[in-house]
Structure formats: C-alpha cells, structure tokens
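chain below, 641 aa
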Amino acid sequence: MDHQSRTTAALFTLLTDDDLYLFNEGSHFHLYDKLGAHPAVVDGVAGTYFAVWAPDAERVSVIGTFNDWNPASHVLHPRGGSGIWEGFVPHVGKGTLYKYHIRSRHHGYQVDKADPFSRFNEVPPKTASIVWDLDYAWRDEDWLRIRARRNALDAPISIYEVHLGSWMRVPEEGNRSLSYREAAVKLADYVQRMGFTHVEFLPLMDHPFFGSWGYQTTGYFAPSGRFGTPQDLMFLIDELHRHGIGVILDWVPSHFPTDEHGLVYFDGSHLYEHADPRQGFHPDWNTCIFNYGRNEVRSFLISSALFWLEKYHVDGLRVDAVASMLYLDYSRNAGEWIPNPYGGRENLDAITFLRRLNEEVYRRYPDVQTYAEESTAWPAVSRPTYAGGLGFGMKWDMGWMHDTLEYMALDPIYRKYHHNNLTFRMLYAFHENFVLPLSHDEVVHGKGSLLGRMAGDDWQKFANLRLLFGYMFAQAAKKLLFMGDEFGQWREWAHDESLDWHLLQYAPHQGIQKWVADLNDVYRREPALHERDFDPAGFEWIDCHDADASVISLLRRGTSTDELILVVCNFTPVPRIHYRVGAPRGGFWKELLNSDAREYGGSGMGNLGGTEADPSPIHGRPYSLALTLPPLSALFFKSTA
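prediction:
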C-alpha cells in the first residue's frame, strides 16, 4: 500500500446527490444502506466503505484493529456541504473492529465514537463497532403471506412480553442468559403451546448498561451482541415466524444515554440532541432528548424504524415513552422548559416526527403495526394522521392497568366502594385502539409480582389472579402479559436472574399457566372475543351496577349476529347461587371457561357445562340465566342458538 492510501481513505461512494439532498431534507429513510460500514469491492480490491455524519468536524478518520487505532492513518473525505465524511478502506472486512476519530472545529475537542449506523458492536463494556453484513437465508415466506391477516385490527392479538436476558438462563454455566439461537427453539415452542399470537421483546438494540433493560439505546441499527450476532437474532425471529408467532420490538426514539462513545455531543456539537438542557436533557433518566426538529435526526430515527422492519422482518414496533416526547414540560417544573412558538407545552416537532414515522411505516409495510406507550389522555394517538391523529395502530391503556390493579389489591369487603374502577374504562374504551398491558413496569421497583399484589390468602391470591386474567380477556381490547405472570411468579421480576420456572412443579402455578393457555385458545377461536375489539358494537354491559355483590356481566359480539359470548365475573370470595343474569336469546348457553375449575386450582364450583336460558326478563333482556357464581371467578358462556 502506498503512502497516500495509508494516510487517506480511497475515493469511492455509495451516496448519490439525491441521497444527500433527501438526507439534509429529512426525507431519506433508508440511510442504513448508505451510511455506516459497508463491505465492498472496488477495482477488484475487497474492503469497506465508511460514511458518517459529522458536520462540525474539522477532520474524521477511521481507526481500528486494521491500523492500530491510529487517527492519522485513514482520513475520510467531506462530501460537499452535506456534513457527511466518507471513504473506502481496502483490505478491511467482516469482523474488523473500528470507530470514528473525530476532531471538532470547536475547542480542540477530539473523541472516538462508535458508528451510529453500525450493524454490530462489541459487547459492553467494550465500545467498538464491528464491520458486519446482514446476509441471511430467511425461511418465513409462509408467515409473511398471512401476516396482514394476523396483524389486522380485527384479529386476535395476545402478546407475550419478554426480556430475553432473564426469560430463561443456564444455571449449569454460571447462570448465563440463553443466546438468540438457544432461545429460538425454546421460546417459539413455549409461546406456541401457550397460545400467544405475538412476542414483544424489550429493546434488543445495543445498549451499554444491561440494567436499563435496553431502554438506554446506543445502537439504533445493531442488536445487542450479548446474545449473539445479527444473524442469530434473525434466526430467532425466523423461528418464531415459522411457529406462526409475530414479533414486536420495543423501540426507543424518546431519549438516548450520555455514554461518550454514543450519539451525545457527537462531533463537538449537540448534533442529535438539543443544546439547551431544558429541551435536550431528560431529568427522569439522565439521558439526552433527540432534536426532532432537525431534518437529519428525523432521517436517522425513521431509518432506524424501517431498518428493523426490512432487515429483520419484524411485525411491529412498540414506541416507548411517547408521552415524554409529546409534552415539553414532561417531568419538569415551571421555568425548566421552553414553550412552543404558540406558548403551549406540546412538542410540535415531536408531533410532526411521530406522524411522519407512522405514515412511512404503514406506507411501506401496511401489514405491520405500531404501538404507542402513551400514558396521558392525548387525543387520537391511534387514529390516522389524515384525521388529525398521530397515526399509531394501537395504544397501551395505562388507565385500565392502574385502575384494575388498584382494585384487585383491595380486600374484597371494600371492593363494592370502588366498583367504578372496573367500569370506568368503558367510558373511553373506543376512543383509541387499545392494548391492555400487564407489562414489566408492573412487576418491578418494589411493586412486587402480580400474584403478590392480589388480595387475600394464598388460595385467594391465585383465584384473584385467574379472575384478573379472565376479566382482561373479556374486555374489548388486545392483550399483553409479561413473562412469568402466566404461571404466577411470586417474586418481583429481576433482570439478572431467570424466571422461577421451578414453581411449575406445584399445582397452583400449573393451574394459572393452564388457565392462561385456555384463555388464549378461546380468545383466538371465538370471533366474538376479538373481531370487534375496537368497535363499540362488540361490547355491551348486561349489568355493571351490582356493586354490592361486586359482580359484573357483559356481552361480547362478533360481526356475525350468531356470535355471542356472555361473561360474568364475581370479585368476592362469596359463592352466589341462582344469580340471575339477563340474556338476549333463549336456548342453551355452554360454559366455555370457568376459572374456578379444579384443573386451574379452583374449588370446582360451576354450572355443569352450561345452562338453559328461560323467558324471565331481567336487565332489559327477554331471557335470563340462573347461574352459580364460584368465589373469585370469571365465567365465559357461548350461545349455541
């Protein structure tokens, strides 16, 4: 290699003038094909093309194992006024460690940065990027053909939320986490047996601190190397697809950590984040907030979202902490935030970004879904942008979660005074396309496990948990359950330990697990329980006023008039004999599910498989059922007329 090629990166580009224009305009959403490190062959010589955005840099060079990390060895070239530096380095191939050495125009600032577009990185605490490809032979053609139907708003969607590092571990090998490939077989088989339709992973994007559970992301285009290579993650997703299971990734465009090798102060300027801490620093998480008003930042983030959909075949993105993006005064006191140009607290740039994000996702991938974790009453989160909404497919119902868990923690003797906690949801239930989330956030930070939060003695706690899940599946909404809840883990979730799978040797935990599997089965089989989750015509109260008995009864309807499911929930430990519930038609009503059945760990009370409706009007209905309501139970009946 001559002196020139040793001191500069050879001229070669993947970037066209159109690429530069769209990037600077904020409309380039496939930047992952242009920026970062791309193995290439130039004039018959194999090497790697590098490109990085650093407009305030005086000089940028590629350093790595190939040049002993020498900043003077391979200097990149600026590309006009775009702010991008690029160059081709011969004889650098897959597996090479590298960073960008950036010398800023300001204050003599110099820093070594990981590649914002890296496809693979060293495992923390190491911080180098790795030259890598994304070659993989996918085998999920059958899934992709039916995916639109499986992700549709009228489809059954029951999500199993997973933190991969703690779902299952290998105690014989130092309690290490499963790799992507090890998890693929075990997780796909388990989720299929349990009847969940989707898996949602807590963020798998690269993150330096394992205890952040992935929510402090540094690698927006790189999966965590803790569990394997990019191809190993592809294998995991592929395997889930081959088992008929959709994959949702948690994605975090709301903030990023301040680790020096990451995005913060990238080229000696506040490139990705706002300069003013009243806009650019998040007080809750000690992180930086993206500058959504900057064109190139919008290109970066939307490219990241589309990257996981295109390259990793994921079926949905759950967008974290949307409320923190929407409000300029989020977690801030007076004087600690800057109003928008109209004097309001709405973050207009973030609103514009979120709408564009959803428009681009659904334009390119109409068969996927986006999910918003949004904890306020912001209107029309899951309504189309053309109707003034943010354009998400669905939104988490945080209000339902809070009200319901508060209610279930009460001693049943006091529940009649809080009956509205059960019924209030229906005042707003169809304002959005809701998912009911019993997520990881409800079993951490001293809150205890779901089972531990239930009222009563041990028997009542298990019965209450079964009742909670039954009530959840009766509601008009999609469902989400965090790992471990499905078999009644006693302990609060710990991210650095395995779930307590040994509990499944005990009958009460087996009963909870079987109950959840059967709920999923009936939810998927019965159109009345899912077709109209977002349609007011799919839900009717039969009686929501019996606070003294703490009993609710409701109807779920499918699009066919023949599809009717009647659900009754008894939220006290008092059995109720000959409890009469109105019904819209006569004939036999089959008992599909009874959470008090012995196979679930209950007392075995019930209705002997069903009951005939007789012409005794009640609750405004021409017929009624005289039912036995077991203690702390959820009962599902189907009309066979």
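The longest strand covers residues 45-53. The first helix runs from residue 3 to 7.
thats it, cya
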